[in-house]
Amino acid sequence: MSADSATAQTAADGEPRGQAVLDDLVALLDLERLEDNLFRGVSPPVSLPRVFGGQVAAQALVAAGRTVPAERGVHSLHAYFVRPGDPSIPIVYETERVRDGRSFTTRRVLAIQRGEPIFSLSASFQLPQNGLEHSQPMPSDLPAPDAVDDLGTRAARGDGGWMAGLPRPLDIRLIDEPSWSQDHPGPSDDPMRLWLRADGELPDDPLLHVCLLTYASDLTLLGSVVARHDVPRTGLQMASLDHAMWFHAPFRADEWLLYSCFSPAASGGRGLASGRFFTADGRLVATTMQEGLVRVPRAGRDARP
Predict the structure, then answer these.
(1) Which residues does the UniProt record annotate as the domain Acyl-CoA thioesterase 2 C-terminal (predicted)?
(2) pTM higher than 0.85 for the full model?
(3) Which of 43, 113, 217, 290 is catalytic?
(4) Cα–Cα distance between 300 and 119 in angstroms, integer?
(5) How many CA atoms lie within 13 A of 47 on its CB side?
């Protein structure tokens, strides 16, 4: 379903949101199959100057998952961002069937534009199995999602950051002031936390829910690197370099999830960020790690390489 065929909704800043926009994202992840192991995807008509990293990661995971039996769920992915993607042309996803074991399945995916790789992903899938269980507890004393402004309300007062001016398939509610905010208190060693969920209802397809979370995981993660420093926000160059995720338990991406982001280290023009996803009832369902390029402009010079 497209935005033209569903009841249109707008956020407080006038940008489209709700079920129609979510349906457009779901359609974006419904890749065209060219051959058994070859798929093609596109970018949305309203896009960033480069393909959003979460989009290409989610589409690559769809390509991998389309070659795996449905009963085998994603348990991990490891990926590298090789080149900036061009949102004006399609992306071809070439999938390699590395191994089909008794319990685990391994796939590799290469995302290609103009004959060159822009992204590579390895993903592992597993049959459901019993074993030891424990997890880190969810942070306590958090405000409920309804008590936190959504991104549209922030953007309406000029505080939407890089996501301002874009359609919103996700309902994002920042608990802590992000690094771009005019109300950011300054350098902090505390994690950056937010509530998020798909802004509508999703089909009962576990692979789709995992891919939606993969998409969402790239939205705010690198911001936790900058939040630990007192640096100018203008001229700052940031780009994802690699990305990893581990999925611990089933979840629905159209129900509230807490995303807690923290940067344990930065050096060499790079920053490392970790993220944890909890369900509203406190279950840790996914963990992510990302290293990104973080270049601060020197006095009198910009951040271009």
Answers:
(1) 179-293
(2) yes
(3) 290
(4) 33
(5) 20
Q: Examine the residue annotation and report whether 86 is marked as an active-site residue of this protein.
A: no
Question: From the candidates 218, 254, 263, 274, which is the catalytic residue?
Answer: 218
Q: What is the 3-state secondary structure (H, E, C) of 106-170?
A: EEEEEEEECCEEEEEEEEEEECCCCCCCCCCCCCCCCCCHHHCCCHHHHHHCCCCHHHCCCCECE
Is 290 an active-site residue? yes
Q: How confident is the model over 64-106, as pLDDT tens digits?
A: 999 999 999 999 999 999 999 999 999 999 999 999 999 999 9
- Any catalytic annotation for residue 150? no
Catalytic residue, candidates 240, 260, 263, 274 = 240
